[in-house]
Amino acid sequence: xxxxxxxxxxxxxxxxxxxxxxxxxxxxxxxxxxxxxxxxxxxxxxxxxxxxxxxxxxxxxxxxxxxxxxxxxxxxxxxxxxxxxxxxxxxxxxxxxxxxxxxxxxxxxxxxxxxxxxxxxxxxxxxxxxxxxxxxxxxxxxxxxxxxxxxxxxxxxxxxxxxxxxxxxxxxxxxxxxxxxxxxxxxxxxxxxxxxxxxxxxxxxxxxxxxxxxxxxxxxxxxxxxxxxxxxxxxxxxxxxxxxxxxxxxxxxxxxxxxxxxxxxxxxxxxxxxxxxxxxxxxxxxxxxxxxxxxxxxxxxxxxxxxxxxxxxxxxxxxxxxxxxxxxxxxxxxxxxxxxxxxxxxxxxxxxxxxxxxxxxxxxxxxxxx
Length: 370
Known about the structure:
CATH superfamily of the largest domain: HUPs
Shape: globular
Number of strands: 13
Structural class: alpha/beta
């Protein structure tokens, strides 16, 4: 089977070769090689007069697809190392001015959409207080990396004293994913502390709700390590869109009205608090910041979804369906997203059939009437 290296690919031009991304639409939208077209699974009519260069996440599945097309008479190749190999090369070639450019963009171009909303959430919800030592939890994606830079900018002004620890938990990442996280942190001047766990190994064979179990375990490990480092808070990078999607998901799939809280005291780790300072920041603005600075992050490092990018197996996730539903509704009425967000701030208990109090006790409207 014929393979092309990244260097050989760069020597080709668009007239003689067609670069084909086999990953699903979500992975392609998150990041792809410039000039590539998205054809999940490679199931499409392709021109016979060009070199066809297929790539997937790591270059394994693209070998099979390229072989199939070669047997059909095409001049087909597989990109060695896939998207991850190309991405590592891009990060290795990045110059030493990345951090300065990123910081300048936050202070100037994206101040209103990112920094101002970041500080507004902190003030409005009381997320950062004098004397705090905050573990900024970094997964390696665009949201948590931006959160780390926003915290550094907040610390630079230092209106009151607080500490920061930039914490990366490795739950069993592939070597490629971990390398990309570490390279991005170095490029952006984020001094990370990495610690290892075996979470992926423990939940890999769980059939029922593995994502829920994994999330719970990851949260517990983060609390434990943060406390070990002398922190009293952990910060997660959930943003405004995550919040409204969670509200709608709870209603549609959980039969309940609840939200992702901006601040939450831990019940299992005394003295520890979870905060979400990106609470008021829109995902579109995060993407704009990422693309403006030419940054490339991992989309999902989960072992469950690493293999889904070729056959589109992740396209039916509940969160993605809800995201698409909200986008379609907002296209006809831009206020819908804001109304979903505000709905959990304007709950009228007098018109609710039943609700649970903090102790978990259910109250019915009939109790009040009788």
